[in-house]
Fold each of these.
Amino acid sequence: MFNGILIYTIIMSIVLCALMAYDKERAKNNEWRVSEKTLIIMALCGGALGGVLGMYLFRHKTKHNKFAFGLPLLGALHVFVLVQLASM
């Protein structure tokens, strides 16, 4: 069970990191963007760690409080849950 949850979290993190890169590129070109709601939902569904990585790798959404504080907090919560599940 734990391995499945860990793999799911890793996949969601990769997807959200890629979405952050995609959204940043779209923002540079003044094109249609990925909605903040979509990014937050992806983070809530397990991709927060990838969102944090993407946020700082691509310098994207770092000035938005809900991302600058919310994603790291959510990522820490995900890590806490994973550690608790691993210790069962």
Amino acid sequence: MVLDYDQDDVAFWEEVRDWLQTNAPRERRPEAGPEMRAFLLAWQPRQYDGGWAGLAWPKEPGGQGLSLIWHEEYAAAKAPPIGCLFVAMNHGGPTLIAWGTDAQKAFHLPKILKGESVWCQGFSEPGAGSDLASISSRAVIDGDDLVVSGQKIWTSYGHVADYQELLVRTSRGEKKHDGLTWVICPMDAPGIEVRTITTISGSQHFCEIFYDNVRIPMANVVG
């Protein structure tokens, strides 16, 4: 009920509802592949230009620090699911806000908010699943680069991503979680192979990723 909100919330609610009714795409979002990427990278800049991108992000990196009313109205307006922008908006971007360098924030956060880049997540592995303490993909320091070898699996939208939040093992300590490094991996780096996985429903949004001595600048290490 509207009475559950204060007047500022009510005004914001009405503004959100009016904007979404006018601007939300009416056509169905493509389910997967380059078509979904193109659709969402056209919709995201429209949200950015309207002042509605990254509402839950702090104001300093370009967010609004606002409430969940947007998400309620977004669903009510049947606006397109966030799909391949999920990792960038809800995980990669917020991680950079918390732990990224000034240079990493300045380069990546505007691109995420404006819908200029797609991210995927490189965490799960065939022998570890989601037990991140057991991952075995390795990275060794060679000059100004990390050299990565290994494999990830169940990487959603890896075939349409520009960057990956990649978790690798750079050392081993007494605790299994020691020695893990979070790094920004450009998906066009030489040595990366992406294979799509067809699910029982016929969709192909999952991928397995192979890394063969992939060189990633040390400047891409986060935290």
Amino acid sequence: MKKKSDTKITPDSFRRAPVLRELMNKAELHQQAEAVVLGTLPMHLATGTRFVSCQEGELVLSAETAGTASQIRFRQHEIMENLRKEELFRFVWKLKVKVAPPRFREEPKVEKMPLSKENARLLKEEAGHTKDKQLREVLEKLASHVRD
């Protein structure tokens, strides 16, 4: 008897499972619809925007930022006019835009800028004028981190 984890999904398994086939067809239709919608949006608005659904003439999009969502709302009549030229969206009469920030955003690593010679000189000068011994040591240590 085969384990469930040993079962592989193959093109043949789609023919035997009507529910899975139906889901794959819906996913493919959704992907095609998203390509059409994003193709009608201006390039700067298409990045970070996703097609959610289109039911009963109501088109729903999601944008990563509120600024992008506002720009789409501002240009909604132009966008809907372009979309109505496509057979799939000829009855679109309402556009709804939701803001859905990305779940995970890769933040660039913060690189520390090396200390310039001028700033190091100023730190040493300030250390010379400081009466507190511990603060003077810290300032001198910071001044020693100058770039070469």
